Structure formats: C-alpha cells, structure tokens
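Deliverable D4.2, example record:
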Amino acid sequence: MHACSSLLIAHSKKGILSFCLSAISYQLSALRQSGIKEKSTLNDAGSTMNRALRILIAGGGTGGHLFPGIAIAQEFQHRNAATRIIFVSSGNPLERSVLAKAGFELGCITAAGIKGRGIWNQLKSSVKIPIGILESMRIIKKFGPDLAIGLGSYSAGPVIIGAWLQRIPTAVHEQNVLPGITNRILARFAKRIYISFENTTSRLKSEKVLWTGNPVRRELLAGDDRQEKGQNNYAGSRFFTILIIGGSQGAHRINMAVIEALQNLKEKEHLHFVHQTGAADAQTVSEAYHKNRIRCTVQPFFDNMAELYSQADLLICRAGATTVAEITALGKAVIFVPFPYAADDHQVLNAGRLSDEGAAEMIIEKDLNGKIVSEKIAYYAAHPEALKEMAARARRFGKPDAAKHIVDDCYKLVDELTG
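Output generated by the structure prediction step:
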C-alpha cells in the first residue's frame, strides 16, 4: 500500500506540473498568433559585423550562468561601443553586485525555480511564470532589442518566451554537457542554440545547434595573454600557490577537507593558499591556516579572478561549466571535486572527459578527505613537470574564442531574421 500511495503521489505531482505548463503553453501560442508585435526592431546601420545593436541577455542566478553572459556582452561592446546591453533576471544580490561592477544595466522580473522544489513550491513557481512573461514584455517593449539571448537559468524562461511573443529573434546558450530543463524548453522557441561541449549535440539533435564553447570574460583572457602559453609559475624558487574556489557561495565540504589536510602537509614554508570560502566558513578556515602557520589569502569571495588565476599553480574547485571553461581556456592544472547535488549530476559530466584525458584530476565528494588532499598537493608541489603536462592538456580543451564565435553568429542571425 505504501509503495502504491507513493507512486500515486509522484504521478499526481507530475500531472499537476504538466497541467500548469501545458495551460501556459496554450496561452502563449494563442498570444503569439494574435501578433503582439509584427516586427522586431531593425538596425539601419547595415549588415556589417560590428554595427551597434541592442542586445538583451536573459537570466543569471549564479556565476556559472551570469559570467558567460557578461563575456558575450563584453564581445558585443568590443565590436561597437555604441551597442546597448541590458540583462534581465530576478535581481538577486550576486547579479546586482557583479553587473554593477561590470557596468551593465539590470532589469528585474518575477521568477522562481521549479525543478526539485516540492509540489507546493512548484505550483507557486508556475503561477509566477505568466507574471514574469508580462514583466519581461514591458522591458522588451521599452528597450527594443535586436536579439534576446538566454543563459539557461530559470529566470531566462519568461524573458525568452516574452521576446518570442513579440517577434524578437532569440538564442540560448547552454553551459553544461547535459542541457538544463529551461533550455530544453526554450530550444523550441530559440532560433539558435549555442553549446559548450561537442557531445551536447546528440542530446538536442537540432539544425539550430552550434558548438561554440563556453564564453570566458575578457579580463581573464587578457591576464592569460601576459603569461607564456602553458607555463606554470612554480619553479622551486617561490611559493607553490594553491587556489581553492567553491563557487560564489563557497563549498563547505571542500573547506573542511582542506582544513583537515593542513595538519598533514610537509614543507609548509613553500606553500601559499588562496582560498575562496563563502561567507559561512571564512573565519573557521582562516583560523585553521593561522593555527598551522601556513601562508594564506582567505576571503568569502574574490573579484580579481584574472590575477588569482595567473598566480595559481594548482586549483581545487567544483566542476561548474563556467569554471571548467575558464580553466581550460587559460590552461591550468586542476583537481575537480564535482558538486554531488548538481542537476542530473552534470558537474561529473563536465569534468569527466578532462579527467579521462589526463587534463585534470577528479575526486568524487564521497571520497574526499584531508589525507587525499594533502597527498595531491605534496605530489604536484614536488613534480612541477606533471603539473605543466596537466595544464598543457587542459589548454587543448579550451575555446577562448567562444564569445567571438557566438557574437559573429548573432550578427548573422539578426540579419537573416530581420533583413
């Protein structure tokens, strides 16, 4: 009886969610057929690949979604400083802070995630979808974009659908190997789907798909240009620098494993840790370094990632798609610890091929402990040639021109659809 009841509840959840989404889909089709907007804004400056455009970039939520959007926006403005960019998302603190520092405008809408939130929260989130669409359409009407690009987070959904309803050309970018639920839905509306990993193509099977790679911000690539390609910093005459980044919120499990590892490390005088902890663990981690008398730079969050990447000999981090893209574009040696609760286990997929090809190491979180961390650090500190080889292999996977390829295609897309 218990098993039967559980099955019925599961089917009920799916049924309610499917009903909500189907109803919304029906209304969207009806609205678009009524022709809310007959033609998108057309730029009269010709069809050259550097004319000024108005570009709307939808979604963000986390750095993994937001930073590729910033890289695309920077490439558009590099082509023509008169190009106008607006980001549209839910306006969480990270988005507001990062976009303000990057100098980009932010428009805010009502949006909330659906997947994995329980039946009641899914219903509440579904109710917000039409509200977010209407808010998006108001922003779109006022801004008049030539193109709307979705970044794949839940807040991108209402914006791209709103653009589609107003006959604005749309595209989406998928950061991960396995497409998220938002992009799987938006693939029906978008005219182009940009993917970061070649093997994502088989999952989408569409003539609209273009493999470009995951865009990396210009400041990171500029920092890389100042270094000799493939050269690691450590040569035995200075500190061996380990950069630990757990995403914008930090990674508690990695933080605790590193604390455990500190007391096992030998030759500590040659080590320097740069550790992004997240707000919750900052004090605990800092005290652990000082207790073990190890040089460190500890902060909840770092803004100067270009400088930190250039200084790092070895990284220990999660395997979010944007982190993977940055590491491979720059050619850095890395130990990935994929986040075990990522949707569809996509972080393991993101890092898996690099690990298989010797371009990275991967430790599954259930196997993570202080002993293995200290052993890995000691090995690579003592074997700079192995470190250099891993970094060189990582670089072979990099696509530093991803933003350029996306923007090139965006110009073609605008010309095709509005010409």
